[in-house]
Amino acid sequence: MTIKNSPRRILYLYWRLYSQQLKAMMEYSADFYIMIGAAALTQITGFLFLWVVFSRIPDIQGWGLWEIAFMYAAIYVSEGFGSLFFEGTWRMLRLVNLGELDRYLVRPVPIVLQIFCTGIGMNGLGNIVIGGAIIAMSLSPIDIVWNLQTIFMALLMFASAMTIRVAINLAANCSAFWIRSSGNAFPIMIHNLGEFAKYPITIFSMGLQLLISIVVPFAFVSFFPAAALFGREPWSWWGWLSPLVAAYFVGLALLILRIGLRRYESAGN
Amino acid sequence: MKKYVSLALCSMQNTLAYRLSFILNFVANFIGLIAMYCLWQAIYTGRAELSGFTWGQMQSYLLITFFVNSMLSYYSESSITNKIIDGSVMMDLLRPIQFQKARLAESLGSCVLEGLLSCLLIGLAAVFTLGIQLPNDAATLLLFLFSMASSILVKFGIVYLSALLCFWTTSGFGIYWARTSITNLLSGALVPLAFFPSWLQSTAMLLPFQGIVNTPVTIGLGMTEGIEALRLIGIQWVWIVLLWLLGKWMWSGAVRQITIHGG
Fold first, then answer.
1. Which UniProt key words apply to this protein (chain B) (predicted)?
2. Within an 8 Å CB–CB cutoff, is residue B238 touching chain A?
């Protein structure tokens, strides 16, 4: 018997797996609030940093406080989105090292879906709330022409940005199949490349710009959407590439996962 | 004393055993340094100085901050919190050693390697940039090195206290995260305290965090000299003692309500 993985079934399964995790999560309610609080705090201090810097200077290469705050927050919101709904990617090391992936491989449920629902990062909620607030605050001082086209573009870029982030997380955490170590050091390193996308990419050298535009496309999470929304030339049309980049990176992540799974051998006992 | 030295050596070997993670971890932090470097470079284009910092000084500032932040990294911190969360703290209760001293010994042990590796990276970075301006005269250099060493102890005091919070929660990572963001802002690791509005600056000076980055950096850059430098180091030591005593007091409260499951 083959089971057809219709989108409806996938969504249903996702919901069931997710809500079970949520119940487990709520057992430790103090942890729940600590994670939300810690994420919010990190982001507020990050914003304070920008604010302190901009209290001394008017702009950085023509970019004002709120424009950079927008990029900064976009990185955090996408990070939060990945944690809140797809935290499981960060647990792959554990799944592989302890051989827990065995259980997933025998179930008639897509493996990616099961990996996604291995955990919930409540810190994501803190990131999304504070990041969302910063983005909302940043929109009023900036001149944006709101019409059907910009709204459509904004939604398209938002969906692509979130997809790109999750795909990067998945691809980076596949390192667990190759690096047999106890820590998440490699995926954290990739995650930290997001630091480069918190600011206008023109402040970096060409090599770094290519790195975060093509190799690990964090720039499509923050900088290019911002430039497109604010109508900054010459990057304003780059935002339209977001869905393509998202498709490309999802494909890449799935390919890496597939190669990794072929290497996977259980912890065994 | 001897037993603490061997603990320090053990932790050094432990760090070496996971060298790939250790190095990748460092590279991850180095990425943050590069981003900050480029950001400040863009900020300083067309400016000679900002809040009393020239671009050259800011470069040294970033490198020294990286060094100080590399000491007592997530590695040492998580080894304390994990002991508490997974219950292996029980083994330490059975041994004739003091928990606080043992953790200090282990942290200092890893600090040796962390220090070496970050010196290497900073050395590389210095080759590619203008380099670090270190103090010229021996007295300032001595004060600088001493304040660096003291800053590790201040950081240990704060890390230890926050790690002990894990007796009350299982979210070691959340605690670590919250502590890092507060430390980064108030120690001057994100941006020099001199950039702060005066109310925030004076608040930060009243807290222990400034002893971690602000004190060694301003002494190293020659911004605080003589009596003023000695005063800042004195404040560091007041905090080292206070935090140590606070840690002792908190530990005695914490072990009383410990529950360890199974065996």
1. Membrane, Transmembrane, Transmembrane helix
2. no
Indicate the DSSP class of residue B50: E
Task: Write out the residue range of the structural domain in which residue B244 sits.
Answer: 2-44+51-256
Q: How confident is the model at residue A66 (pLDDT cuts 50, 70, 90)?
A: very high
* Stated pTM of the model: 0.88
Tell me whether residues A30 and B181 touch, CB distance under 8 A. no
Contact B39 A203 (CB under 8 A): yes
Distance from CA of B139 to the nearest CA of A (A): 33
Count of C-beta atoms within a 10 Å radius of residue A241: 17
Q: Flag whether B262 is in a domain.
A: no
Kindly state whether residue B21 falls inside one of the protein's structural domains.
Answer: yes
CB-based contact, B171 to chain A, within 8 Å: yes
What does the alpha-carbon distance between residue B150 and residue B233 come to, in Å, rounded to a whole number? 8
Q: Is residue B263 part of a domain?
A: no
- pLDDT tens, position by position, B148-169: 999 999 999 999 999 998 888 8
Question: How many domains would you assign to chain B?
Answer: 1
Among chain A residues, CA nearest to B189? A49
Q: Which of residues 21-50 of B touch A (CB under 8 A)?
A: 21-22, 24-25, 27-29, 31-32, 34-35, 38-39, 41-43, 45, 47, 50
Residue B237's contacts (CB-CB under 8 Å, 6 or more residues apart) are B150
SS3 content of chain A, % helix, strand, coil (to 5): 75, 0, 25
Helices B19-44/B99-128 angle, 10° precision? 50
User: What does the pLDDT look like over A124-175, one tens digit per residue?
Assistant: 999 999 999 999 998 888 877 788 888 898 999 999 999 999 999 999 999 9
pLDDT tens digits for A112-135?
999 998 888 888 999 999 999 999
Whether residue B204 is contained in a domain is answered as yes
B207: helix, coil or strand? coil
Tell me the residues of A at the B interface, defined by beta carbons under 8 Å apart: 28, 30-31, 34-35, 37-39, 41-42, 44-46, 48-49, 52-53, 55-57, 60-61, 123, 179, 181-183, 185-186, 188-189, 191-193, 195-196, 198-199, 203-205, 208
